[in-house]
């Protein structure tokens, strides 16, 4: 068994982490001593992994990471190791747009799942075995079990999405697997879609259009298809992150809406730039005419918009969700729409996806549902491909990811 010592600064007192691995050339191990405080815990996982990779690449040198690890200077350390990605095997779980897979193929062995429908769990388990990296979609559940099936050599999961609720990040951390996502480049596209949904839902765009398509348009009707308008009304943004902000900018700037928002932290810039007011969710729901959901899906936000929450909304209000389906209680939403307890809803995300065509929400004339197309523009999806591939290549080389969530 091969062993490599890693020295830490004086402040580092005893407690050791040991990691073992298997490769075609045998088995190896790394022992790490770390600080009494666990402030370097994440860094240690990365160090262990770099060390593994270095050994796998046939490099036996003992490295002193003490100073650089203490400073968090990973780039220097990994480039000093000069690790190769050449022989790594990666799985890409769907065809992605753009040219970036060509770059990946230059440095790795790449298998791309060729179907439009995602691999089943069973197929995924078969496909991940022995991979060093995975480029995954939001529809792939990447949990500890799957990482174990992949094997100890797995070092990076690069999600082709900004949302990463499909990945068990804690399980990844404990296995020394780094996880990447694709923020920012899809913010505008998704905010545009949130605004589109807001208008589509508030002006009956789909059912009215269908009337024409189905030859049912009889005449101009003074009382037909009456909707609600956003100008000078109140917009409630649930989750003032990147997409929440971009949506608010569009609607406050373009339609003069007043802004309320919820956030875990104060967003001074939003208040300054858009005149928004941070409030509790209950206040936001009660006072807003349009509520747009942009929080990440976590255990805390699952069912955040439940029957109780919907019950606080105005009967003239419109609910938009472009975040994740699980944040809204769909049964409660069906009930509210049927009772006209809210005016309408626009959803780009549902539970499950796809939502069966006979689901009550699909049948509701007051609900617009899109097939999760928030980021579906050429610009955004190509840029997501670039980031996802950059993340994967960096992770394989033990370098910091361009966009990391671990
Ligand atoms: N429909 C689509 O195609 C797309 C959907 N999305 C979804 O939108 C979400 C947001 O994306 P970004 O704005 O880029 O992410 P972000 O991380 O910038 O924003 C998420 C916000 O939610 C807040 N948040 C998280 N937990 C919260 C809680 N318990 N209470 C209040 N706020 C909480 C965070 O503080 C953060 O401000 C993604 O996680 C993803 O699920 C993103 C892109 C496209
Ligand atoms: O990025 C995401 O989180 C999406 O939902 C699709 O782009």
TrEMBL record:
Domain D-isomer specific 2-hydroxyacid dehydrogenase catalytic, chain residue ranges per copy: 90-403
Species of provenance: Rhodopirellula baltica (strain DSM 10527 / NCIMB 13988 / SH1)
Lipoprotein is among the record's keywords: no
Official protein name in the record: Glyoxylate/hydroxypyruvate reductase B
SUPFAM superfamilies documented for this protein: Formate/glycerate dehydrogenase catalytic domain-like, NAD(P)-binding Rossmann-fold domains
Keyword Oxidoreductase: yes
Residues spanning the membrane: none
InterPro entries: D-isomer_2-hydroxyacid_DH (IPR050223), D-isomer_2_OHA_DH_cat_dom (IPR006139), D-isomer_DH_CS (IPR029753), D-isomer_DH_CS1 (IPR029752), D-isomer_DH_NAD-bd (IPR006140), NAD(P)-bd_dom_sf (IPR036291)
The protein's enzyme class: oxidoreductase
Database matches in Pfam families: 2-Hacid_dh, 2-Hacid_dh_C
Recorded family membership: Belongs to the D-isomer specific 2-hydroxyacid dehydrogenase family. GhrB subfamily.
Domain of life: Bacteria
One of the record's GO cellular component terms: cytosol
Reaction catalysed by this enzyme: (R)-glycerate + NAD(+) = 3-hydroxypyruvate + NADH + H(+); (R)-glycerate + NADP(+) = 3-hydroxypyruvate + NADPH + H(+); glycolate + NADP(+) = glyoxylate + NADPH + H(+)
PANTHER family: 2-HYDROXYACID DEHYDROGENASE-RELATED, GLYOXYLATE REDUCTASE_HYDROXYPYRUVATE REDUCTASE
Molecular function as annotated in GO: glyoxylate reductase (NADPH) activity; hydroxypyruvate reductase (NADH) activity; hydroxypyruvate reductase (NADPH) activity; hydroxypyruvate reductase [NAD(P)H] activity; NAD binding
Enzyme Commission (EC) number: 1.1.1.79, 1.1.1.81
UniProt keywords, alphabetically: Oxidoreductase
Record domain D-isomer specific 2-hydroxyacid dehydrogenase NAD-binding: where: 196-374
């Amino acid at each position: 068994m091969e062993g490599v010592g890693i020295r830490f600064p004086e402040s580092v007192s005893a407690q050791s982490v040991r990691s073992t691995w298997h490769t075609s050339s045998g088995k190896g191990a790394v022992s790490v001593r770390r600080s009494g405080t666990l402030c370097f815990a994440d860094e240690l996982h990365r160090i262990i992994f770099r060390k593994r990779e270095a050994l796998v690449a046939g490099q036996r040198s003992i490295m002193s990471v003490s100073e650089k690890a203490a400073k968090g200077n990973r780039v220097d350390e990994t480039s000093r190791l000069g690790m190769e990605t050449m022989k790594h095997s990666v799985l890409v779980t769907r065809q992605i747009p753009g040219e970036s897979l060509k770059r990946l193929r230059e440095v790795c062995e790449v298998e791309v799942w060729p179907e439009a429908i995602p691999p089943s769990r069973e197929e995924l388990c078969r496909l991940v075995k022995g991979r060093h990296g995975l480029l995954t979609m939001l529809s792939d559940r990447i949990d500890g079990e799957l990482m174990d099936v992949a094997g100890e050599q797995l070092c990076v999961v690069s999600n082709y999405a900004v949302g990463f609720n499909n990945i068990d990040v804690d399980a990844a951390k404990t296995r020394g697997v780094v996880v990447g996502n694709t923020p920012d480049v899809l913010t505008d596209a998704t905010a545009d879609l949130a605004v589109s949904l807001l208008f589509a839902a508030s002006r009956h765009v789909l059912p009215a259009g269908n009337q024409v398509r189905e030859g049912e348009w009889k005449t101009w009707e003074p009382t037909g298809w009456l909707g609600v308008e956003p100008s000078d009304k109140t917009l409630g943004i649930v989750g003032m992150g990147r997409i929440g902000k971009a949506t608010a900018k569009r609607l406050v700037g373009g339609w003069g809406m007043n802004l309320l928002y919820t956030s875990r932290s104060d967003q001074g810039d939003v208040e300054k730039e858009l005149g928004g007011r941070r409030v509790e969710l209950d206040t936001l729901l009660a006072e807003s005419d349009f509520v747009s959901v942009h929080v990440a899906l976590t255990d805390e936000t699952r069912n955040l918009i439940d029957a109780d929450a919907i019950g606080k909304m105005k009967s003239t209000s419109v609910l938009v969700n472009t975040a994740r389906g699980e944040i809204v209680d769909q049964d409660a939403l069906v009930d509210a729409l049927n009772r006209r307890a809210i005016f309408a809803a626009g959803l780009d995300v549902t539970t499950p996806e796809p939502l069966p065509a006979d689901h009550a929400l699909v049948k509701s004339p007051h609900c617009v549902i899109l097939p999760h197309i928030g980021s579906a523009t050429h610009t955004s999806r190509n840029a997501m491909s670039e980031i996802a591939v950059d993340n994967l290549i960096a992770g394989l080389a033990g370098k910091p990811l361009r966009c990391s969530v671990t």
